[in-house]
Design a protein that fits this description.
Number of strands: 19
Order of helices and strands: HEEEEEEEEEEEEEEEEEEHE
Largest sheet: 18 strands, antiparallel, barrel
Structural class: mainly beta
Strand content: over 45%
Radius of gyration: 24 Å
Length: 415
């Protein structure tokens, strides 16, 4: 019996160097070929190879559960202009090619691009990001009972302009645009969000700021099915008070508490009111151990049922543990739990009120032998359940509950 094949990071770099025509004698300095400078412009090619095994490819239940191994080939490119931390621009583009072992008819691909900018002009700071992704994947729900890939374009713009009025006080305006456009024929509503936030912050100490802000936004939903009318658009408004910065020697982050109200416009208005909470906190237990806590509570329209709201609570926990003294090994654990309460919706004959629970948790071991290379091995568990409050609605909607296990092995090359 032959021993298992072992590929070290140095061997992998040598193989890739030969593949792109780099002499083997220079393979030990392969990182030199992953960043090119032309004046203030840095050009950085990227590549990632990922192997994913899942026991539930289509996020289904019962007889529809199918396991498969997927290979993902991900070439990409990054451009960076400027490197002083005050005036910088970045552009990245990538492609993902998905190849399945047993379900080759479901092979697919995705593309993505992103641009971000930070610019300081006198007392003004302008920073933000534009991104667009053309995605194709299984997303769960009724569609995956038919094993259907869901193609959609996701476009996001998030920009902030800050004016430093004094050494301690600033004013800022944040604009957010998000647009999800599903393929024609799907019983999912396209969603377009616009939101503006006006705020001010005051430097209480050298380490943290107090802030107050208010926001207003609108969401438009559009039908992808002929004969199915689009729901009325909804508006949302509210505000926060909070703080951001370093609160103690070990605790830092951003914490906001407020209130929001969302309502459909036109006709009989249905409203959803809720406390609005946003937390992004980091606690450093020790130099090698840190915990990140994420929490949010907010409202949104349903992507499938007209004139239906959901109020979602999202809790995320991430733990980073450095392993050993080399600084090359890292152990990461994560858990994300979401509860969503949906109201009845627009159909007066059926009470479509339901409660959803979604859990995603996993553990990943990372190894970074070079600044331009990292390996990772991870396990992840995903579980989705729901409960309709009305027995008639439970029988009327074929909405599968599911769970899935995944094992991922990945190699990423590039800065």
């Amino acid at each position: 019996m032959k021993p298992p094949l072992s590929i070290t990071p140095a061997t992998a770099a040598g193989i890739l160097a030969c593949a792109v025509g780099v002499p083997s004698s220079l393979a030990k300095d392969f990182g030199d070929y992953l960043s090119y400078s032309v004046g203030n412009l840095a050009i950085q090619p990227q590549y990632a190879q990922t192997e994913i095994y899942t026991d539930n490819l289509f996020l289904s239940n019962g007889a529809n559960r199918v396991g498969d191994l997927t290979s993902v080939f991900s070439p990409g490119l990054k451009l960076q202009y400027g490197a002083d931390g005050r005036n910088e621009m970045h552009f990245s583009a990538g492609h993902d090619e998905f190849v399945l072992v047993d379900n080759g008819d479901k092979n697919t691909h995705q593309d993505r691009m992103a641009f971000d900018l930070k610019m300081v002009v006198s007392r003004f700071t302008i920073e933000g990001q534009d991104s667009v992704s053309w995605m194709s994947s299984f997303i769960g729900g009724v569609l995956n009972q038919t094993r259907q890939l869901v193609d959609r374009r996701v476009w996001t713009d998030n920009w902030k302009v800050t004016y430093d009025w004094t050494a301690k006080t600033d004013f800022y305006l944040v604009g957010l645009h998000q647009d999800t456009d599903y393929q024609t024929g799907l019983r999912l509503f396209d969603q377009n969000d616009l939101k503006a936030t006006l705020g001010t912050s005051y430097l209480m100490t050298a380490k943290y700021r107090l802030l107050v802000e208010g926001f207003y936004g609108q969401t438009a939903l559009n039908s992808n099915v002929t004969g199915l009318s689009s729901p009325p658009f909804s508006s949302v408004y509210g505000g926060y008070v909070g703080a951001r910065g370093e609160f103690t020697r070990k605790l830092s982050g951003d914490l906001r508490v407020g209130y929001e109200q969302r309502e459909f416009n036109g006709g009989k208005s249905v409203a959803a009111q809720t406390p609005a909470i946003s937390a992004d906190l980091i606690y450093a237990f020790r130099p090698k151990t840190s915990l990140t806590l994420l929490y949010s509570r907010s409202s949104a329209p349903s992507p499938q049922v007209g004139s239906q709201f959901q109020i979602a609570d999202t809790v995320g926990i991430n733990v980073n543990q450095s392993v050993g003294s080399s600084g090359k090994w890292m152990l990461r654990a994560h858990a994300n739990y979401v509860t969503s309460a949906f109201n009845s919706g627009s159909d007066p004959k059926i009470d479509q009120t339901r409660d959803d629970q979604y859990l995603r948790a996993g553990l990943t071991l990372l190894y970074q032998p070079r600044a331009w290379m990292n390996w990772s091995l991870g396990y992840e568990f995903e579980n989705y359940t729901f409960q309709f409050r009305d027995a008639v609605a439970a029988k009327s909607f074929v909405l599968p509950q599911y769970h899935a296990n995944r094992v991922t092995l990945a190699l990423a090359i590039g800065y």
